[in-house]
Amino acid sequence: MGGRAGFDCEVLVIGGGIVGLSTAYAITRAAPGTRVVVLEKEPGPARHQTGHNSGVIHSGIYYRPGSLKARYAVRGAAEMVAFCAEHGIAHEVTGKLIVATGRAELPRLHALVQRGRENGIPVRELGPAQIMEYEPEVRGLAAIRVGTTGVCDFPAVARQLAESARAAGASVRYGAKVTAIDRRPWGVAVRTAAGETVRARALVNCAGLHCDRVARLTGDDPGMRIVPFRGEYYELARPGLVRGLVYPVPDPAFPFLGVHLTRSVDGRVHVGPNAVPAPAREGYSWSAIRPTELAATLGWPGTWHLARRHWRYGAGELHRSLSRRAFTTAVRRLLPSVTGADLRPAAAGVRAQAVLRDGTLVDDFLIRRAPRTVHVLNAPSPAATAALPIGREVARQALAALADP
Prior knowledge:
The chain folds into 2 domains: 4-49 and 155-223 and 363-401, FAD/NAD(P)-binding domain (3-Layer(bba) Sandwich), CATH 3.50.50.60; 91-150 and 229-352, D-Amino Acid Oxidase, Chain A, domain 2 (2-Layer Sandwich), CATH 3.30.9.10. The chain contains 11 helices and 22 strands. The strands form 4 sheets. Strands 1, 2, 9, 10, 11, 12, 21 and 22 form an 8-stranded mixed beta sheet that branches. Strands 6-7-5-15-16-17-14-19 form an 8-stranded mixed beta sheet, sandwiched between helices. It starts with 8 loop residues before the first strand and ends with a helix. The protein has helices spanning 18-30, 68-87, 106-118, 128-134, 154-167, 211-217, 291-298, 301-309, 311-322, 324-332, 387-401, and strands spanning 9-14, 36-40, 56-57, 91-92, 96-100, 123-126, 142-146, 150-152, 171-174, 178-184, 187-192, 197-205, 224-231, 234-236, 245-248, 260-263, 269-272, 276-277, 343-345, 349-356, 366-370, 373-378. The longest helix is centred in the first third of the chain and has 20 residues, at 68-87. The relative contact order is 0.19. The chain is of the alpha+beta class.
């Protein structure tokens, strides 16, 4: 099969989260006239990671200098604020505090100061009295203030990206679950659950929680598996206790930032998340169990290597998941005045965490090329913050894939 007329589109994107839609948007801007189709299995955009996160525009302070996360988060934060302002999307640059509550955390806090400066992020070091100037109810030995952190409505950003891509000629199709992929030298043919076949010259896999499965459908071995971690949140019944964003000092051995306090654009304050293994890729509660997906997670050697290496950390997270009292105790390290009655259950999220065969948690964004294909295999937080530069990079690779022999 050859020639433009033999294809339904030049580039087919699987996944209608913020990264997939940003990729489609970037292709229409970089190569006007390129036919792009986005297939999303849900009835609308941003139904999973994009729509179930804390809404934070991350500064990039946590990430290794020179990494994709560092470069794209720093650049993406500024671009996301500008995008929201341009399109009238709710957002606010609030700044945030990262607070050390114990002496053992002070060296890690000072390391973050250095990392932030290496990443070009302005930070201010604070003592206990200065912490209370920003957050009167928060207590700590020391803190740093990161002025470029903010919050926004990421689902609204995703909807705008879809609208802008459509206005430039892209097709965004919802309720289109991909069930089979046939990759040939001429391109790819994708079949959906409804029996539709879409033929494209190049494929982009932005399937998030299912990206490894989609990679295997193409015949590629991704070399990793998505191990889903559920992040559980509470909402503060007394939102006035927190003015902005307050984070603990994270453990650098994990990609999770710990239980933090986030005032969102609608004025609510969310507390969380923790990080517990989810029994389903879309397991937003303990009752959401998919035996096939759970068996696949348990059958991956990396899952067991990870569990053996970090069981103590995991046990603590599980305890906080099952005990509101334990969760409250964790929050009170930052916010001593909070009580169990202040915490109301809120919607949970699931992180699509790539884990290698040896149990290594993939720490950076992971984008891999294969013939006529681009796989986005690890794009959890801060991917929403970095969606615009990630989309441009994936778009660049997708356009290059059009020329693959």
